[in-house]
């Protein structure tokens, strides 16, 4: 027996990540203030927090170029800048196409198998559904673990560096996850906590945006593929008889096929720019990583 709650349970982490990014795909009613905050404020608050760091990185990069910093030093900051821009680009298009996104998610909710009887004839269908759910759970677990480890490591390494420096020399030296430069002195002890918290928040935003958008893409592909496989199974096991019941079943299956094709087209439209950004940024990061390694 498989209820639609399995659909919600499987993409729970994805929904939470997108919720923090300012995109609400949760099923159910929210009170007015929560809905207003998520739909109209959270996204822009995240943009402000993240771009405060990005502007500081760009300023540092420009200043480093002018003052003659080595290419190796400059290239080390570019991956952070690139991934931060990528995270913004990924969530930006989904946020501004929320209606199309909600149409796709709601349609997949609607056509998700409400229940499959565990009989000899339906074991294959049950296996198809279970395979899609288990694969998606594994992807979510893997990416959530990686995102958590990356976030905590990236944000705490400077703290350990500061602690080590203090224990070794007795001097308090401020270090940050991101190399930034602002019109004010970021290494002034009266400012460093605020700047550090902002950078911690920015790192969470970046990881949340990438995790939410990417795992949603995996979920859409997984469930669309699952429904195509179920559709294929039903076509293959139709009775070869000419009667009204069989004809009606064929009509229902044809309509389901048309619905799935439409979902594929909408998903492609939602993620075409995100995929392009992935390819471009991956190429850039691979080149920079190869240069730094050699």
Automatic annotation (TrEMBL):
Q: Does the keyword Transmembrane helix apply?
A: yes
Organism lineage string: Eukaryota, Metazoa, Ecdysozoa, Arthropoda, Hexapoda
Q: Which GO terms describe its biological process?
A: signal transduction
MF terms per GO, please?
odorant binding; olfactory receptor activity
Q: Which UniProt keywords apply?
A: Cell membrane, Membrane, Olfaction, Receptor, Sensory transduction, Transducer, Transmembrane, Transmembrane helix
Compartments (UniProt record): Cell membrane
- Output the Gene Ontology cellular-component terms: plasma membrane
- Residue stretches spanning the membrane: 42-62, 74-95, 138-160, 172-194, 200-224, 270-291
* InterPro entries per UniProt: 7tm6_olfct_rcpt
Its recorded name reads Odorant receptor 23
List the membrane topology term(s). Multi-pass membrane protein
The UniProt entry lists the main location of this chain as: membrane
Does Cell membrane show up as a keyword for this record? Answer: yes
Signal sequence, renumbered to the chain: none
């Amino acid at each position: 027996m498989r209820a639609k709650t399995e659909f919600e349970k499987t993409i729970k982490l994805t929904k939470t990540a997108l919720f923090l990014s300012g995109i609400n795909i949760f099923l159910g009613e929210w009170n007015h203030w929560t809905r207003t905050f998520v739909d109209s404020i959270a996204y822009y608050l995240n943009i402000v927090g993240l771009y405060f760091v990005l502007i500081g990185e760009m300023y540092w990069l420009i200043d480093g170029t002018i003052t003659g910093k080595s290419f190796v030093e400059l290239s080390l900051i570019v991956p952070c800048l690139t991934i931060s821009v990528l995270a913004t680009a990924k969530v930006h298009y989904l946020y501004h196409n929320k209606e199309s996104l909600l149409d796709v998610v709601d349609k997949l909710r609607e056509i998700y198998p409400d229940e499959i009887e565990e009989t000899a004839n339906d074991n294959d269908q049950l296996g198809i559904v279970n395979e899609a759910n288990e694969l998606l759970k594994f992807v979510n677990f893997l990416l959530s673990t990686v995102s958590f480890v990356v976030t905590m490591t990236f944000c705490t390494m400077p703290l350990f560096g500061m602690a080590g420096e203090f224990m070794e020399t007795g001097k308090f030296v401020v270090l940050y996850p991101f190399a930034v430069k602002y019109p004010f002195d970021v290494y002034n002890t009266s400012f460093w906590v605020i700047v550090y918290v902002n950078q911690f928040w920015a790192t969470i935003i970046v990881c949340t945006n990438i995790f939410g958008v990417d795992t949603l893409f995996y979920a859409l592909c997984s469930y669309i593929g699952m429904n195509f496989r179920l559709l294929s199974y039903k076509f293959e096991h139709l009775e070869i008889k000419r009667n009204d019941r069989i004809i009606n079943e064929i009509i229902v299956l044809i309509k389901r096929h048309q619905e799935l094709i439409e979902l594929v087209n909408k998903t492609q439209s939602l993620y075409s720019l995100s995929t392009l950004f992935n390819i471009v940024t991956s190429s850039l990061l691979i080149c920079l990583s190869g240069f730094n390694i050699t």
